[in-house]
Amino acid sequence: MSEVGAPSTGSSGLEGLRLSVVAASLARPGGTERYLILLRDALLEAGVSLRVWTRDDSGDERLDSLLDDTPDPLRLLPQAPRARREARRLAESSDLALFLGIAPFGFTLAAARALPTLLSVHTPFLTCPAGSRYLPRSQRPCHSAPGPRCLQVDRREGCLSLQSGAPFSPLGKLSGSLTRGPRTRLLLRAVRGVVVNSAATREDLHRLAAPAQTWIVHPPAWIPLPPPVDLEPDLLLFVGRLSLLKGVPEALEVAARLPQTRLEVIGEGPERARLEALAAGLGIAARVRFRGWCSPEEVSQAMARAACTLVPSQTFETFGQVGPQALQAGCPVVAYEVGGVAAWGREGAAPRPGVTLVEVGDLPGLTRAAQRALQEQPAPAERARWSRASREAFGLERFRREYLEVLAQARSQAPRRA
After folding, report:
1. pTM of the model
2. Residue 77: φ, ψ to 5°
3. Distance separating alpha carbons of residues 30 and 38, to the nearest angstrom
4. Angstrom distance (rounded) from CA 337 to CA 18
């Protein structure tokens, strides 16, 4: 693994670099696309010639819209000629390619064979056919490597499903389980290097194969500084996608077990109606407010008002930005320690000030930790210290500096071919 983050002097080492960034879309940017938006100015200032490739018209170049990622080999084979053609087009105008997130496998592999290519990995997609590492019936993370065992686990857990919740076809289940591991190994050995968001993500990948280089760059858990607001000492907060694997039912259960509290839920997702029904079934509908999507400014204000932010995710979190964002707003955090949560939840072996970590699935422990956070409200000066420390450790300037160092190191290496 390469280390980044040391102070740099003189030239950035990026002058004249023709960098092509491949992303899904900039029209409705997700987490990885926001990285590009935050990096763009720094790249241009460093002398980089930047071109963005997307599958719609939101970038500088449009990729073949027929390229798709699928576990079905009958759909993959016809894509190979198009993937090679698009990879050649990418190579003709680029010195280095950076894939944000996971593009279709065939195209990514063809690009890695055509020009120096970096992968930015921030989900378990490469190590799990469903891309989640979550066992829905057991409500806990999955630690199995992809392979035939996935079929056995799916019969028990029903975990091989698309992000929409629809199950894979029988052929998709078979192919996804048997080919995900070999495909990932092939890809990791073909690329010049991988940029991951935590040590947990790196270890998850390295169980299958170690790429030539792996750089850890924590994402910028940036959030606007909130204006002065009054603390609401009975308010619990959840921020995130409304899906079961993010642990929203756990947050509702905590609120039900602490009758003097209120809970605000910020976010949208496929399980909203089911979660609203659960709140009614627990008898806490009057104490729970589902706010839907909120702007970063609104999220920051909610965190500043809350007595505690709950991060009860039960899936393999590769990092999780809500925790450090809450700290930046001066709000205590109670979180399940799973996956990459330790990247922001710990300082060495000890929990980071302002953070209480609980073993995943320990609902009584989560409830007790939330109750302590409500009872032991920190002074404003202590909240301010948490905010400064989190902004320094997970801020935008640090992210920009480290990512530019990764690109400079990747450029300086001899070309690598599969």
Report:
1. 0.86
2. -60, -45
3. 12
4. 40
